[in-house]
Amino acid sequence: MLVAVSGGKDSLALWDVLVALGYQADGLYIKLGIDGGVRYSDQSLEKIEAFIAARPGARLTVVDVPQELGAPIPLAAQLTRRGQGRPCSICGMSRRHIMNRVAHDGGYDVLATGHNLDDEAATLMGNTLSWQVGYLARQHPVLPASDDGLVRKVKPFFRFYERETAAYALVCGIDYVYDECPYAVGATSIYYKGLLNQLEADRPGAKLQFVLSFLRAKEEEGAFAQAASEVTLKRCPKCGQPTANDGECTFCRTWDRVRERLASQTHPQTQMEAR
Ligand code: SF4
Fold first, then answer.
1. Which atom of ligand 1 is nearest to the CA of 88?
2. CB distance 69 to 255 below 8 Å
3. Radius of gyration (Cα) for the chain, nearest Å?
4. Where residue 275 falls among pLDDT bands split at 50, 70, 90?
5. In angstroms, what is the span from residue 169 Cα to ligand 1's centroid?
6. Mean pLDDT, the chain, as a whole number?
7. What is the average pLDDT across 217-232?
8. Hey, where are the domains in the chain?
9. Which is the closest atom of ligand 1 to the Cα of 73?
10. Which of 32, 115, 181 for a ligand 1 pocket mutation test, highest count of atoms within 8 Å of Cβ?
11. Residue-level pLDDT at 270
């Protein structure tokens, strides 16, 4: 099993639980190249290294985005204007691609992430408000592997409130990154979490009921089943990863554009010719 770890409480608590339960769980850290004045990426990796130092046998794979792909995430977002220059869009897309690739190429049968109930409820709220049927069809704590090359994905903490994973980390003495990613400020998901917290304060259990009712509607009433069956994936001719695109996947196209723009900035002659 591969566990995606960010250095935060949820993913480190999940890794700790899986190891304690006897799973051979290896970690994957994707170094995004985010500093934000708090050495966010470096600090996160330091916490993970301290975590594995205390757990002999725990293995970690690090994918260094700036080194491997050519630019840190915030610069890549500026260069492509993807997500209006905010890094979250390219960050999420890149992390999903890298996680699947590392799990697939490493022969792991499952990829686990530390999403908690607050994350799932906020995602569900966002997908529902904008009626993203495709995303709703794929939102589930267990996504099976597919012949197209998607690895099985699980979210074992999806029923736990964020405060519960924080309490677990505290009780077990797990040191984690307290700072949020600096780009989380103003993110829509944080806004939805605030709204859901107000709802939860008035109606305790509302978040859990929201997520479980959605899952029940999918499982018992077949909600979104048609949208799920309509998704056909192909292989990207460049990287071999599954994609809904005809031709190269969004990851390959986006990062090719980043490297082209970087190269044209490095070579002003080329830049002038392009005008
Ligand atoms: S807040 Fe945005 S940039 Fe930061 S880790 Fe999350 S998705 Fe990436």
1. 2
2. yes
3. 20
4. very low
5. 22
6. 94
7. 91
8. 2-226
9. 3
10. 181
11. 46
